[in-house]
Write a sequence for this structure.
């Protein structure tokens, strides 16, 4: 059994000993021949998951030097890498190549090549361009998700999103939300940090409760302009037995069976008309139920990040 440690620039993951443990039927993060132990002191492999390398800082001014106020910005990377050899260190970048951060992503890739044997991300300029292995944000056990029948559906459509507006794509999504809301459509909005004008049903501690009771779910990516980027928005929706009305790139078509999701054509009047038509009845959901069943098994067993890590580890056995 090989252990896989993890480091990330996502602050919420820094002390998560049980990261990804809900994505396997076995205790303590075991999948195949490997065990996910994010905080292991001496792991056999190391996953750098959306790790932002420190960027060079400008030289301090004379005043800074005199006052001794210069802050140390460089991380001690050898300590963070925990003695793992380069060929066993994996770098996975998962943020989309938005115009506002694309240069940061490129610098991260360049730095990662100095320390990691495998460097990948969901964009064409990554050293190894590839889709992101699946993670999800339901707290249900793997066994429950794998074996459960479809839960009772009682409501039409939901959208779980956030009020983030720091990029043009984020602002486009919020404009679309405002347009949907102004039509008085039967859509329940959930999320954190949403603007005061949003008639929200509140923030969720578990996305399951904002998806499982609904037939349809709006799964709208922050980025839809390449053939690689697809995020947990789609996996979460399908695992809750929703039929996703999906706005995103072509990666989903390569990874999931036909008919398991619907394509939202655009974030404008045409898209609003499409949502109105689909959600006016339940025909589309019933027609897609078998494809949703198949897609859920693909997500759980094949696209699962733990399965991906296990296959990577197998190369060294």
């Amino acid at each position: 059994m090989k252990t896989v440690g993890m480091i990330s620039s996502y602050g919420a993951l820094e002390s998560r000993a049980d990261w990804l443990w809900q994505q396997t039927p076995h205790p303590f993060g075991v999948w195949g021949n490997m065990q996910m132990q994010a905080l292991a002191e001496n792991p056999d492999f190391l996953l750098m998951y959306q790790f932002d390398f420190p960027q060079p800082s400008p030289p301090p001014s004379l005043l800074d030097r005199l006052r001794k106020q210069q802050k140390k910005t460089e991380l001690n990377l050898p300590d963070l890498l925990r003695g793992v050899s380069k060929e066993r260190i994996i770098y996975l970048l998962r943020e989309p190549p938005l115009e506002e951060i694309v240069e940061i992503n490129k610098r991260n890739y360049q730095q990662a090549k100095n320390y990691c044997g495998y460097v990948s991300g969901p964009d064409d300029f990554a050293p190894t361009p590839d889709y992101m292995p699946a993670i999800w944000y339901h707290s249900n056990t793997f066994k429950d998700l794998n074996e459960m029948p479809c839960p009772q559906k009682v409501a039409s459509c939901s959208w779980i999103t956030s009020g983030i507006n720091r990029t043009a794509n984020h602002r486009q999504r919020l404009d679309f939300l405002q347009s949907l809301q102004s039509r008085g459509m039967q859509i329940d909005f959930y999320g954190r940090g949403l603007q005061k004008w949003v008639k929200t049903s509140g923030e969720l501690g578990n996305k399951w409760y904002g998806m499982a009771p609904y037939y349809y779910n709006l799964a709208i990516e922050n980025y839809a302009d390449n053939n690689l980027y697809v995020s947990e928005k789609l996996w979460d929706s399908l695992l809750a037995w929703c039929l996703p009305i999906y706005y995103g790139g072509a990666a989903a078509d390569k990874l999931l069976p036909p008919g398991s999701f619907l394509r939202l054509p655009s974030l404008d009047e045409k898209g609003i008309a499409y949502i109105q038509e689909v959600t006016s009845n339940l025909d589309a959901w019933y027609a897609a139920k078998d494809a949703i069943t198949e897609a859920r098994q693909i997500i759980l067993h094949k696209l699962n990040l733990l399965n991906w890590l296990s296959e990577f580890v197998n190369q060294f056995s």
User: Anything to note?
Assistant: Residues 69-73 have pLDDT under 50 and may be disordered. The chain has two domains: 2-130, 142-303.
